[in-house]
């Protein structure tokens, strides 16, 4: 079989094609990893929110002089 590489009769046309294909493959892999990371982070943040039991209508608690007030 033939391997991608320059030869006397291709005038260097093969190398840019191979480079473009490699760049495309790397970009697709990175995009897939980015999506997977985002989904994992979103799932983790949902678990943190659930664990904290956040209610948007709750009044925030502040501390003054070492005592908690509401």
UniProtKB/TrEMBL annotation:
A single GO cellular-component term on record: cell outer membrane
Membrane topology (UniProt): Lipid-anchor
Annotated compartments: Cell outer membrane
The keyword Membrane is annotated on this UniProt entry: yes
InterPro entries, per the entry: Borrelia_lipo (IPR000680)
Pfam family, one: Lipoprotein_2
Keyword annotations from UniProtKB, A to Z: Cell outer membrane, Lipoprotein, Membrane, Palmitate, Plasmid, Signal
Function: The Vlp and Vsp proteins are antigenically distinct proteins, only one vlp or vsp gene is transcriptionally active at any one time. Switching between these genes is a mechanism of host immune response evasion.
Name this polypeptide is given: Variable large protein
Source organism of this protein record: Borrelia coriaceae ATCC 43381
Lineage: Bacteria, Pseudomonadati, Spirochaetota, Spirochaetia, Spirochaetales
């Amino acid at each position: 079989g033939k391997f991608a590489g320059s030869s006397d009769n291709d005038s260097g046309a093969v190398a840019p094609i191979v480079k473009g294909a490699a760049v495309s493959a790397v970009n697709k892999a990175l995009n897939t990893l980015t999506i997977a990371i985002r989904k994992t982070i979103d799932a983790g943040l949902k678990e943190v929110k659930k664990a904290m039991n956040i209610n948007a209508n709750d009044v925030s608690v502040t501390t003054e002089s070492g005592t908690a007030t509401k």
